[in-house]
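Severity: low
Component: inverse-folding endpoint
Summary: output formatting inconsistent between runs
Steps to reproduce: submit the following structure tokens with default settings.
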């Protein structure tokens, strides 16, 4: 697979070029919000657990619906209720949120906006 190298790796290798960095400002993890009221206690605990493990700045309020799907699948995994195709979906959801070792580098960290030199 052809994956984009993380900016940190490019900096270590001396190949980083800021003009080619297409990262965007990501929402902070606090923007994910609290678990929805309709989740049961187990799912709420899983919500908090996974939210704490998310790479910084990778999820916001707009991601709450897909994060809820991840949480319900993961809580069903813990109780042994998942079938084969649901395990595939769980693996994809973990990947989308950068929660697997292979996908962690593909998730862009948040970027703090730079101030212009003349405003300092």
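Observed output (run 2 of 3):
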């Amino acid at each position: 697979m052809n994956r984009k190298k993380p900016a940190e790796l490019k900096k270590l290798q001396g190949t980083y070029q800021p003009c080619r960095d297409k990262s965007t400002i990501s929402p902070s993890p606090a923007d994910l919000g609290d678990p929805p009221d309709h989740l049961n206690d187990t799912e709420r605990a899983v919500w908090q657990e996974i939210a704490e493990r998310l790479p910084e700045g990778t999820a916001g309020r707009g991601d709450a619906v897909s994060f809820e799907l991840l949480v319900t699948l993961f809580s069903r995994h813990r109780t042994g209720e998942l079938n084969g195709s649901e395990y595939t979906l769980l693996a994809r959801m973990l990947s989308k949120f950068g929660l697997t070792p292979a996908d962690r580098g593909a998730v862009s960290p948040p970027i703090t906006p730079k101030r212009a030199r003349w405003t300092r």
